[in-house]
Amino acid sequence: MSQIPYISAKDVEGTLSWHSMVDALWEGHKGQRPEIADQILQRGQDILLSRAAWIGGLGAAVKTVSVFPDNPAKGQPSVQGAMLLFDDQSGAVEAVIDSALVTKWKTVADSLLGARLLARPESRRLLVMGAGEVARGLVQAYPFIFPHIEIEIWNRSPEKAEVLAASHSNMRAVRDLEESVRRADIISCATMTKTPLIKGDWLHEGQHLDLIGAFTPEMREADDKALQRSRIFVDSRATTIEHIGELTLPLASGAISRADILGDFYDLADGTAGRNSDDDITLFKNGGGAHLDLMIGRMILQAYRAE
Hints:
Layout: E1 6-7, H1 9-12, H2 18-28, E2 35-43, E3 46-55, E4 59-67, E5 79-86, E6 93-98, H3 99-118, E7 125-129, H4 133-145, E8 150-154, H5 158-166, E9 171-173, H6 177-183, E10 186-189, E11 208-211, H7 224-228, E12 231-234, H8 237-240, H9 245-253, E13 261-263, H10 265-269, E14 282-285, H11 290-306
Parallel strand pairs: 1-6, 7-8, 7-10, 8-9, 10-11, 11-14, 12-13, 12-14
Antiparallel strand pairs: 2-3, 3-4, 4-5, 5-6
Helix pairs in contact: 2-3, 2-11, 3-4, 3-11
C-alpha cells in the first residue's frame, strides 16, 4: 500500500505558476458543475469550517480549517487546516494538502481569471486595497496576466501599505482612496470591512472591480451605486448569492435584483455572458468555494507527482 502524501508549500512552490493555476480554473469550468456543501461548527469565537465539493471527472475534496482568533497572542496561527483529495472513480484518498497552500493559490487565481475574462486587456493601472496575505499575492500575480500593469496600494493603516509597496519596484502606496479609485483601470479589494469602501460615484467607464474580502452575510466592500452602475458577475452563483453580504444585502433591500447578476464562471466558459463593450464597468465577486479548492488541489497534486 502506497503512502498518502502530505503536500505543503515547500514540496511544490517552485513548480507552480499563476498562469497554470488560472488555466486550471478555466479548464475546470468547462466540465460538469459541482456538488457543494459547507458545514460550520462554533465554540464561542472559535470556528471549525468544512467545505466539500465533488466534480465528475475531477474527484472530490474536503477542506477543513479551524479559526481560533486568540491564537496569535499565544504565538500560534489563527487559521490552520488541511484538504483531503479523493479519486473520482475509487473514492480513495490521493493526498492531504496544507490548506494555506490551497487557499493562497485559489483565492488569487480566482480573481485573476475574473480579470482575464472581464477587464479590458489594455488595463495599465491596478489599485490593490488591503495589505494582508491576499494583497501580497495579488501584487505578485497580476503582472503575470497584465505585464505592463502599474500598481498602487491603499490600506486603512498607511504604514502597512508603505511596507508592501517598498517590497516591489513597480508599485507605490497611496493615501487618497477616492483619487486612486478614479484613476485605476482595475480595482482589487481584499479587506475585512463591513462598511462599503468603494463608492459608485467614483467609478468610470471601462473599469473592472474585483471584490474579494467580504465572506459573511454582514460584510461588503462596494456600495449600492457601485453595483447598480456595473455589470455584475460572480465566480459561482451557488456560493455567493445566498451567502455573502456583498450581494445578499443589496438584494434584500431591492437595490439590485437577481437578474442583475449576469453570470458566473460557467456562463463565461460557455460564452453566454461577459463584457459587452470597453465602456462597461464590470464587477466580479470572488466568493471562493470548495469546487475551486478542488481544481487547484488537482493542479498541486499534479505538480507534486511531476517532482
